[in-house]
Amino acid sequence: MSTLSVSTVFLDVRDTLGYVDRPGHLVLFKPSTRQFLQSLKNDMKVRVGIITNLPSNVSHDQGVAMLKEAGILDYVNPDDVVSSHEAGAEKPAAAIYQYACTKLKVKPEECMYISENFIEVVGAQAAGLNSMIKPFPPSRDFLFKPLDPGTSTPVDSGRLAEVMMEEEHLVGKRIVGASAKIAAMISENKTVPLTAVGNLVYLLQNFVNPYHHMKEEKILIPFAISRGYPKAKTAWILLEHDQGRCYFNAIEIAYNRLLNGDTIAWSDLKINLEGFVALYKQHGGREDNEFLPEAGKLFSPQDDALIVDLFAKAGPGDLTPYLALIAQTESELDK
Ligand SMILES: [Fe+2]
Ligand SMILES: [Fe+2]
């Protein structure tokens, strides 16, 4: 029986190490991706490279910059990043895996390719590399394990629970941005595509409320109170969520009236979108700079791990469809 000896592990990026929440911006799976990269480098002592297919409008250097910004280059030499542009081929073609081995001066049989994408994994194997599939979406990547905080400032507890909610707020900001744009288009008597309004209604009712609000209401706030955070200081969050839900419902009713041919509903849609935008612009900022850091400073490493685990269970398991809907809505509004 031969012993497998791997000197180099090549990783796929998107949906293997994190999700791309907007073009050119990678959000790592937390806390699993850093732990994974640290283990590869420090415990297994293998060289870590990247093999990535980039779209035609993203250059190799822009791809490397995205990896740097996400923190991946803390573990990967930028020269060990291989893109489809420089290889002149895309995964799952054998040429890109072979190009990667040549570039890093390693033999295919010494390498392992890891991705969540089954076809790419088979492609790597066909090119002579070892390969493994990584589950997507991450499931038990969020194992219950005490988590040390990062750097703390007056507006940042350094807790992972805070980081995760602030990342969700960045997604929320795009929903607010699309809403503001629709309201402005109505004011200017421009034609608003009803499909964009429909997407927005879907996101508010099936993403913002059931996932984001619920994480705050059912997990973070009760936990913060149990650790001594004054209950009275959480009232504004719950009240603003109630106000928000009224806007979401009013926006949905106006949308249904428009679908029913009732054009007078455009003004009701506009009024409620404007209300939602004004409310949530300040709501997210106040959570980021007041509630989340103050509560985060009361949490222990065990608390943080438990909250992150509960977040993962609360969902959504996979953010991809919601991000795709936001991107689709933005591009429809840009036409
Ligand atoms: Fe909130
Ligand atoms: Fe929030």
Account of the 3D structure:
Helix content is 58%, strand content 9%. It starts with 7 loop residues before the first strand and ends with a helix. The chain has two domains: 8-133, 3-Layer(aba) Sandwich (Rossmann fold), CATH 3.40.50; 160-334, Four Helix Bundle (Hemerythrin (Met), subunit A) (Up-down Bundle), CATH 1.20.120. The chain is of the alpha/beta class and 335 residues long. α6 (160-187) packs antiparallel against α7 (194-226) and α7 runs antiparallel to α10 (301-314). The model has no long low-confidence stretch (mean pLDDT 95). The strands form two sheets. A five-stranded parallel sheet has the order 5-4-1-6-7, sandwiched between helices. The protein has a two-stranded antiparallel sheet with strand order 2-3. It has helices at residues 32-43, 60-70, 84-87, 94-104, 118-126, 160-187, 194-226, 235-259, 265-296, 301-314, 320-334, and strands at 8-11, 18-22, 25-28, 47-52, 81-83, 111-115, 130-133. Residues 165, 169, 212, 216, 284, 287 line the site of one fe (ii) ion.
- Under CATH, the topology of the largest domain can be stated as Four Helix Bundle (Hemerythrin (Met), subunit A)
Order of helices and strands: EEEHEHEHHEHEHHHHHH
Our measurement of the CA-to-CA distance between the termini, rounded to an integer number of angstroms, reads: 61 Å
Query: Could you tell me the mean pLDDT?
Result: 95
What is the makeup of the main sheet? 5 strands, parallel
Name the bound molecules: fe (ii) ion
Question: Regarding CATH, which class of the largest domain?
Answer: Mainly Alpha
Helical content (DSSP H or I, runs of 4+): 55-70%
Any idea what the radius of gyration is?
23 Å
- Categorize the overall geometry: globular
Unreliable stretches covering 5 or more consecutive residues? none
Alpha-beta content class: alpha/beta
